[in-house]
Amino acid sequence: MFEWLKSIQSKGPRTLPCLEGWQLSINAVLMLWEELSNTHDFRFLLTNRLNQDCIENLFSIIRAKCGLRDNPDCGQFRAAFRQVMVDMVMIPSKLANCENDVDKFLCSLSNIKEALNPIDIGQASTSFLDTLAYNVKSILSVCTIPTENDQGLSLQESNILNYIGGYIVKKLKDRICNVCFDKVVGKLESDNCNHAFTAEKSLGSLQYPSTLLLGVVQHLEIKYREIIDSCIHSLCIKAQISETLGKLEILDRMKCVDCHTDKLIVHIMINIRLHHTIKEVNRNLRDNKDRKNRKTIKFSHL
Asked: pTM for the whole thing?
């Protein structure tokens, strides 16, 4: 087939990209088979397992959730994936032109119930049950909606605020006294789930806020959300927000006559949040003005 594809000539001046891609795929499979057979003593290769149709079918169903969602964010993808897993709507229609490949991607709830039935446990092998339990736990850990902390913030939000707190520590360095800096700076805690995002992103170069500073940032964030909608279009918006946030009692623990650490924290936090809020407002205004039907855009090139 590879030699035959090379012999095909186009009647026009343009070459056919599909033929070049086909040759590349065949050549890649041949090279892969040579590596696997000679180096790793493979006796056969199931080429059907090399294609990405199953993941494409999964993503197409994720996009179809809630109407038409081409670019879901992390939270939307998690929610759609959870619903798909529970409902098992990934099973394609009988009229579909693709194989039923999703059953290899996830186990159905009926299979889980049958496998975990007390009557069958004695007959099943221990290794099978251990593997099944681990797989189910892994899937559910990815799909489970995160719980909230005492301030009503999800784990993801707490991780983001921890990252913002580290940025605040960086900005406060060399601007406050050593006593105040010891209050705001913290260390990586491997068992602290709030440090997961910063730890993965920093590679040891980012700062970590102290527990006290993280609590201050969380309270500032909650209060900011409460007041931003009412003053987003007002004059002197930063002064209004600063006056409101500066009255939080938790800031009393950060006050310093010489450094004014509490005011600096509020100032930096407002700059960060206002920048993001204004960016989102401008994006929404731009999208509403130039919004087109996304299905029409997809076919506009035809």
From this structure: 0.51
